[in-house]
Amino acid sequence: MASRPKLREKRLSASHMPDTPPNPRPPKRFRPEPFAYHEEVELEVDSLTNMGQGLARTGSGWVVFIRFALPGERVRARVYHNHKNYSEADLIEVLRPSPHRVEPRCPLFGSCGGCQYQNLAYPEQLDAKRRQVEELLRHMAGIDFPVEPVAPSPMEFGYRSKITPHFDRPRDGKIGPIGFQLPGRRSLVDVPECPIAHDAINAALPGLRADIAARAASFKRGATLLMRADSDGAVHTAPDAVAVDRVGGIEFRYPAGDFFQNNPAILPAFTAHVRTEAAASGARFLVDAYCGAGLFALTAATAFERVLGIEVTESSVAWAARNAESNGIANTEFRAGKVEDLFASAGAFPGAETAVVIDPPRKGSSPEFLRQLFAFAPRSVVYVSCNPATQLRDLKQFQAAGYRLTKVQPFDLFPQTKHVECVMSFTKDRSAPGR
Length: 435
Hints:
Oligomer: single chain
Order of helices and strands: EEEEEHEEEEHEEEEEHEHEHEEHEHEE
Largest sheet: 7 strands, mixed
Distance between the termini: 54 Å
Number of strands: 21
Radius of gyration: 24 Å
């Protein structure tokens, strides 16, 4: 375990610029109560929010969110925003550190907005994420339900197979920082190396940065770069380049710019859990409703008689079909479905004998999609989400449609960050009248 930082030496600010004056003029429309702009306060940190901020309360109960502060710490913080019901503050000084505070591996931690938890020991990161899902269940869905311990990533660093650094419009013929946004700001911090990125990405990053700098005159505006490392060790920077990943003995090929889970190390356990949960109800058939390149459909195929993958993007459907053929998986088919009639393709699969896997975008499932899903009335649903908040919003709709929550299993696809992937399992209650 990394050593504990020395007291009073680790200073973090909202802009993370050491030359920021201590009391600049407040921004327009600053709400002056209950704290003056940049007023400094000493607080005890109670817990972590799902955004990775320390949550503290004043003696009157007013809530203050403090970036990079940890539960159990006493800190000095500088307020920069008063909202109607809470304030936000920067961590200025750790007066009494948490026993779980560790030295961040990245020298840019606190300046780069990519990570929130490098200062927190990994077992505590996992426990914090489990508690956050549990609290969301209680507060958003109004239920107390046991949340399984978060499945850890086999790699705490060097796991991320895709990063997308940015740079702004060149000035005076030169490229400025190439990296990621400051926490809570639009400004960029220069990132010459990223400890959570795959080793191959970090090996290729200096060359890419040098190439961009050498071609500064060719850019009229800023841009977002693509770097994807695949299982063969190649790093792709063109969105249409073909990347290769292997999960549980199955080889997936897909365009490097398309969506594919970005932590290959955890994918065998992750997909195995989805397969087990989908098959647990005894369903004969499987529908993967956001199939992409076929990740869940193909890794679960041996557990079902037939598998159907549906996707609104025709190019993704074509790649999924190619992946099935190249891996010799004959009991799957893939179809492009229109959003307004997505489950029409599943007509040959009786809902009562079918399990459905859904992995919607971060914004969650649309009401239109859920109406179609509930009309199809599958035997069970395995809901994979990178945003537990929208997943729990949808949970209420599942309950209203007669589905019972049976398991909540988070996975840590993104160590050192606030993000958590959550898999919820639902079973249709067919004993109720009219169901």
